[in-house]
Structures are given as C-alpha cells and as structure tokens.
Amino acid sequence: MKKILSLLLAGATALAISAPGYAGKDFDAIKASGVFKVGTEGTYPPFTYHDASNKLTGFDVDIAREIAQRLNVKPEFMEVKWDGLIAGLDAKRFDAVINQVGVTPERAAKYSFSIPYTTSQVVLITRNNNGDIKTFADIKGKRSAQSLTSNYGQLATSYGANLVSTDGFNQAIDLVVTGRADATLNDRLSFLDFKKQRPNAPVRIVAQQADASKSAVLLRKGDAELVEAVNKALQEMKDDGTYARISEKYFGVDISK
C-alpha cells in the first residue's frame, strides 16, 4: 500500500512539474526563437495595409509590434487572406492572428483571446445613389461584398444577402462603387478612415448596429502563459499612453474611450 501511494505521489509530482512547461510551450518557443509570428491580411486599412512605400503598416500592425517589443522578441508578419488566417494559426504557421478578429462564443470555444483591444460597430455601406437599401433587413436578396468567413460575411448571410467574395475592405468598397455589389457590411472605423483618404468616393453609411463588437488577439488554446503575457503588454500600453498615441495616429482620437 505504501509502495502504491509512493508511486501515485511521484506521478502527481511529475505532472505538477511538467504542467507549467506544457502550458507555456508556445511562449517558450517564441522566447527561444526570439520571434513573435503574426498572421495578418495587409489589405484592411487602417488596421493592416501597405503605405505608399509598400511598407506594412496600420493600427493592428503597430499594436502587434508593441506587443512583440514588450515580450522582448521581434515581430514577424505573415500576410494571408482573411479566409486563411485561422487555418494558418491551426497549422502553427504563426503564433497569433492580429487582424481585428471579432470575439465570438464559437471562436472562444476553440481558441484563446487576449483582452479586447478595439471596440467598434458594424455599418452598412452603399453607393450614394442607392435608394433601395436603408436598413440591414433591406440587403435580403441583394449582393453584399464580404470576406466569406468573416463576422461581417456571417452577419450579411443572416440578413439573407447573397455574398460576393472579396479579399478585404478596399476590394469590398470598390465592388460597391462599381456596382458589382449592392452593399457591404464592415467596420465603422475603417469606413471613416477610408472617407478621410477618399472624401469624394460615392459611398455612404446608411445604417449602423447599436451593439458594439470587440476585437482581440487570437491565440491557440493551451498556453495560459502566452495569453497572460499578451494581456500584460496590452494593459501596459493603455496605462503608459502608448495605445492612445497609436490610436490618435490612425483615427485622430483615442478609441479606447
């Protein structure tokens, strides 16, 4: 009996010792390599896009760079179409997805999320001369330009829209402008940035959801240490004013307020 008890205690001790190493395996690998690999689109201004010199930039990109810096590693960005971002995380091509990933119960069941770093609202965008679409319900049977697996695509489908596949925000807007799509559901902050850049574009917001959506860093489950480190970095950015500085750079205001 004593021998069995000793074996059980030894096994429990071994599990206790090995559990933290298992729990932190992704973070351990990141620290060992010195690189934080981030999946992002690169086609979704002002969050992740290429500037006039073709440099990857944007609000989410700057947030990712700051997180990496506070983890004491270098960021490495891997640009993937939206529909391949989560699959890339599953395949361990990168350590995180930082691309305005909406927090949903379905995703939270399979993945870990950081604390939210943006809150925004879904808007319905049409051409200026479109008088048929005034509410979300009006897109039933209409063509809505969306990334097929995005939150916006799912929402458009729930309203009965026929989806026209896009690679990102700019293409969605171009499809609406050229009449190849009747509307697009997208992020209010993205649209405001777009209109700042192209004030004469013949598109407008015709409806806005009252409920705000939250976006966070998407991580694989099973590494609480990495989630905690990312959360700590995000909170420090808000506390020391870094988040406000990045926010004002892209939106002219501190969007955390």
Automatic annotation (TrEMBL):
It holds the Pfam family SBP_bac_3. Residues 1-23 form the signal peptide. The keyword Signal applies. InterPro entries: SBP_3_CS, Solute-binding_3/MltF_N. Keywords: Signal. Residues 35-254 form the Solute-binding protein family 3/N-terminal domain. GO terms for cellular component: outer membrane-bounded periplasmic space. Its main location: other. The keyword DNA repair does not apply. It is found in: Cell envelope. Belongs to the bacterial solute-binding protein 3 family. This is Amino acid ABC transporter substrate-binding protein.
